[in-house]
Design goal:
The chain is mostly helical and about 130 residues long. It has helices at about 15-30, 35-40, 45-50, 75-90, 95-105.
Length: about 130
């Protein structure tokens, strides 16, 4: 017995909603795993303060911080992802391995839009030997 696929009768094909689900999983992964790892590394309150003081160059701002957010919107996930590197860069506990791990993660997301300014894509940083 053959059953109708779950998308039968929809005006869109499975490629649309499967792509959306994959993007959701990528953004949720960033929030849940590298985000929690970075909070533990540099401290939740310190990371929260860094998000609060970001200049208003983004459509989405975290004026109340990130610690109180229990469920993030797509825009919040996107902004969080864009701000991760500027937030952690230069912190005493963040070395080149941490920076490269976050950059590497950003490179696999096709919709990652880096923050304005110098392009860091593919750049390897050695914080022990500053330029």
């Amino acid at each position: 017995m053959i059953e109708e696929p779950c998308w039968a009768g929809l005006s869109i094909g499975p490629s649309v909603f499967i792509k959306q689900d994959i993007l959701h999983v990528l953004h949720k992964f960033i929030w849940d795993h590298p985000g929690k790892w970075l909070k533990k590394l540099i401290g939740e309150n310190k990371m929260d303060c860094h998000f609060i003081v970001q200049p208003p160059i983004h459509a989405q701002r975290f004026t109340g911080g990130i610690l109180k957010i229990s469920q993030a919107s797509r825009q919040e996930h996107h902004t969080y992802q864009r701000l991760m590197l500027p937030i952690i860069f230069g912190h005493e506990k963040v070395d080149a391995k941490v920076i490269n791990a976050i950059w590497c993660r950003q490179d696999i997301d096709p919709l990652y839009d880096p923050p304005p300014g110098p392009r860091f894509k593919g750049l390897s940083v050695d914080l022990n030997n500053p330029v």
